[in-house]
Amino acid sequence: MIPSAFDYERVDTVDGALASLAEHGDEAKLLAGGHSLIPLMKMRLAAPAVLVDVGRVQELSFIRDTGDHLAIGALTRHRDLEVSPVLAEHAPLLAHAASHVGDPQVRHRGTIGGSLAHADPASDLPAAVLAMGGTLVAQGPGGERLIPATGFFRGFLESVLEPTEMLVEIRIPKLTGAGWSFQKFTRRAQDWAIVGVAAVHSATHTGVGLVNMGTTPLLATAVVEALEGGASPEDAATLAAVGTEPPTDDNGTAAYREHLARVLVRRALQEAVPLTVADD
Amino acid sequence: MSGTVSVQIQVNGVPHADQVEPRLLLVHYLRDVVGLTGTNVGCDTSSCGACTVLLDGESVKSCTLLAVQADGCSVTTIEGLACGEELHPVQQAFQEEHGLQCGFCTPGMVLAAVSLLCETPEPTEEDVRRGLEGNLCRCTGYHNIVRAVLRAAKEQP
Question: What is the spatial distance between Cα A218 and Cα A221, in angstroms, rounded to a whole number?
Fold first, then answer.
């Protein structure tokens, strides 16, 4: 399979990328690791007239501890997230989720910003960023804008980014010492999740993200509200499918996914939420 | 739209300079332009790993990379591993443990293993199985493949 023809521009800086986007508008797509976009182009499901290759914009490859949160450059690769000592200490959920994206070859190329901007409900990292209460930083002709992860995903493979904007940074509140869990249900190791759950729990923040339970990455808000209202993890988990619209496909029906979500959220909460009352 | 773009790619230590269409995939560049057909096209959807090569030392799926993305980089294919008649330790271990049946997945499997051993020089069996999750063998030869990689890990200098 071969993509349809396109013009290729390589840029080395964010400013260069923004200039290209300003010139070409929605004719152009940014190419980072390419592991979502190139398969779509090979299947001719995407046919951008111009590819702007941002894969070498070094200034966007970083993981920084900025005090109360972590700042992660949009072009940081999954492999770098996987082995980052900073993430291991302050956001182990994200490092672990990154280690389950695709396979090593994919993780050598794919980037966190590419994964988020692609807005695939079946991707692992959006659910983790949602669960942790992340904020996305977009840069455009008008400057920088901060978008809470909860407001970033608009529809299937669609984010709120404008055609002239670029996702440049992901900010994650530091939840050092928080309980967490990542549950990914697949038939084979490297597959997309049939359903996945990213959960994090501390005294100040509880978040449960769902993979592949609707047209966008989702938060299990009913589960979190129940927990905050004093429900047990087991009881809260029964609400995992509330407000979701999971797809039916070769891997399972919507009803099967709803069941999976309840089971996986229960397992995630049992792992992430420390027992406060000792059972007899 | 789309003329050609010049690329300079070092393949197995040999510099190549070519004019390519931007949409040319790296695997087709290696097979059709450079003429090295050891890299196989399997699923063509970045699932099977048959097309795995090393890009600046790291395993990548060359069916999901444009040749232009490898401009200025160094690529290692299965043809570039042996030193003359002397097989690379991972190749040698695949031979000794019979880590192949039909051989179609072998070039990608070997390169994925080389990359894995660079990142994890002393892997457990679990590390090897997880580390090769991106490479499929339809002959169900995984047991011997895993043995081969563990043997190569032990024998590497």
Answer: 9
Answer yes or no: are the C-beta atoms of A73 and A63 closer than 8 Å: yes
- Please state at what angle helix B89-96 crosses helix B142-155, rounded to 10 degrees: 130
Could you tell me the sign of the dihedral formed by the alpha carbons of A10, A15, A18, A20, in that order? negative
- What CA–CA distance (Å, rounded) separates A197 from B156? 39
pLDDT, tens digit, for every residue of A52-101? 999 999 999 999 999 999 999 999 999 999 999 999 999 999 999 999 99
The model's pLDDT over A163-216, given as tens digits with 9 standing for 90+, comes to 999 999 999 999 989 999 999 999 988 899 999 999 999 999 999 999 999 999
pTM for this entry: 0.95
ipTM (interface pTM) = 0.96
Distance from CA of B133 to the nearest CA of A (A): 6
Helix (H, G, I), strand (E, B) or coil at B1: coil
Which residues in chain A (130-149) have CB-CB distances under 8 A to chain B?
none
- Which of A146, A137, A122, A147 has the alpha carbon at shortest distance from A218? A122
Looking at residues A20-40, what average pLDDT do you find? 96
Cβ atoms of residues A223 and A213 within 8 Å? no
Q: Cβ distance A195 to A182 under 8 Å?
A: no
Helices (H), B3-105: 26-28, 89-96
Q: Which residues of A are less than 8 Å from B64 in CB distance?
A: 34-35, 38-39, 42, 109
E strands, chain A, are 7-10, 28-31, 50-53, 63-65, 69-73, 135-140, 143-148, 153-155, 158-159, 166-173, 179-185, 195-201, 206-211, 218-219
Kindly give, in sequence order, each residue whose CB lies less than 8 Å from that of residue A38, ignoring residues fewer than 6 positions away.
Answer: A3, A31, B64, B65, B66
- Cα A279–chain centre separation: 36
pLDDT at A279 over 60: no
* Residue in A closest to B109 by C-alpha: A105
Q: Which residues of B touch A109 (CB under 8 A)?
A: 60, 64-65
